[in-house]
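Why should sequence recovery work at all? Because a backbone constrains its sequence more than one might expect. Tight turns favour small or flexible residues, buried strands favour hydrophobic ones, and helices have their own preferences. The token representation captures these environments compactly. In the example below, the structure is given first.
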């Protein structure tokens, strides 16, 4: 996996851009780790801050701005589409 420095910068970018508030830095770190390491699938029960279609669109806007790939789509556990 890529160095933590890239992860910290990505987490900070998501906070700086207002996608994730300072109170949810752990959530931003989970997204940053997946982004920096180009993880194809991130599984989470956190529908408020991680598996939220509106937030995923915001994460993707930050990813594009800083040269990272787009995140996938959100699916609730037990669904296939």
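From this structural description, the recovered sequence reads:
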């Amino acid at each position: 996996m890529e160095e933590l420095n890239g992860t910290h910068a990505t987490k900070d970018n998501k906070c700086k851009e207002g996608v994730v508030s300072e109170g949810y830095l752990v959530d931003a770190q989970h997204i940053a780790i997946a982004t920096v390491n180009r993880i194809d699938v991130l599984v989470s029960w956190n529908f408020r801050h991680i598996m939220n279609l509106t937030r995923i669109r915001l994460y993707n806007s930050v990813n594009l701005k800083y040269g990272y790939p787009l995140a996938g789509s959100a699916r609730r556990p037990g669904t296939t589409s």
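A few observations help interpret the result. Residues 4-65 form one domain.
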